[in-house]
Amino acid sequence: GKALSRRPDMGKAISEEADVAFLTADDPNFEQVASISEEIKAAITNPSVQVILEEDRKQAILQALAMADSQSAVVLAGKGSEKTIKVNGQAMPYESDIEIVKAYIAEEKA
Description:
The chain is an alpha+beta fold. The protein has four helices and four strands; from the N terminus they run H-E-H-E-H-E-E-H. The strands form two sheets. A two-stranded parallel sheet has the order 1-2.
């Protein structure tokens, strides 16, 4: 499908633009998150990019935010405001990337 064909392009973009990349779940449906992540990782040709595999999307986002400093840009690609994640043919409830980031920022300011 469309997502499958984009994986090499994701790896290429990461190679060109990222210092650190968290590879995580984004509607894996019937595929294994680790397999998808490995396909993307295989297309990352820049050896200076730190690649972190974290199957739990919320944990990946929280780790990326915690790692960032005032000079960092954190790019969350894939889910945005979506409130479900497709796993094994089912739309499972998901907090949404936006809500995770809002909660993180609120906690940091508290």
